[in-house]
Write a sequence for this structure.
């Protein structure tokens, strides 16, 4: 799946570069309107530039998401098939150590996470490009004052890390709860006759 994913990254690069065309063209339009002797062709060229940049941005972004979603869907399908094939080949001893809920979550929740990851995996590199270009252009307009935003981002890094760690711990607890619930559901469905004969519906309902 590397080819379509790399092409999606190229489309994202073009989109991010076009993002900074709009502010530069707007600055040029302001200077054009202030200059009474400026030729009309300059204003028309600036208008054409911002129009083409917006069209290019829309085209690249839509195709970027399409390629990422397509790659994610293929990755999710591969993970589901791989887990299913591995589950069929497990020995009896390994099946005792692996619950049905764990296998179900691997083919549903974890595979879905792999699919969702492809959309934002390119952020590893394009975020630095966006920040770098933004600082470059802001420095030209504001000077050292633009470093205030960088300072705020640096201060928020530990806070973001703490929040992400807390969310990860909560997610692990949630996954364990999901595994237990799937196991109870499987137990209920497998022993439905006994549960009905013993009138255990309410107790198992509370467990689920």
């Amino acid at each position: 799946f590397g080819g379509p994913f790399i092409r999606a990254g190229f489309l994202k690069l073009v989109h991010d570069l076009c993002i900074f065309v709009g502010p530069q063209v707007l600055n040029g339009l302001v200077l054009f309107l202030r200059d009474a002797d400026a030729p009309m062709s300059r204003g028309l060229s600036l208008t054409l530039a911002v129009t083409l940049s917006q069209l290019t941005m829309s085209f690249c972004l839509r195709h970027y998401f399409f390629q990422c979603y397509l790659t994610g869907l293929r990755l999710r399908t591969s993970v589901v098939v791989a887990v299913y094939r591995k589950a069929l080949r497990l020995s009896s001893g390994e099946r005792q150590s692996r619950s049905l809920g764990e296998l179900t979550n691997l083919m549903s929740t974890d595979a879905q996470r792999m699919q969702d990851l492809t959309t934002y995996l390119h952020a590893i590199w394009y975020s630095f490009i966006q920040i770098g270009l933004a600082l470059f252009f802001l420095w030209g307009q504001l000077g050292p004052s633009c470093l205030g935003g960088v300072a705020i981002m640096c201060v928020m890094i530990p806070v973001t890390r703490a929040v992400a760690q807390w969310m990860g711990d909560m997610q692990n607890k949630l996954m364990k709860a999901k595994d237990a619930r799937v196991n109870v559901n499987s137990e209920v469905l497998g022993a439905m006759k006994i549960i009905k004969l013993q009138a255990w519906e309410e107790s198992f309902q509370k467990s689920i």
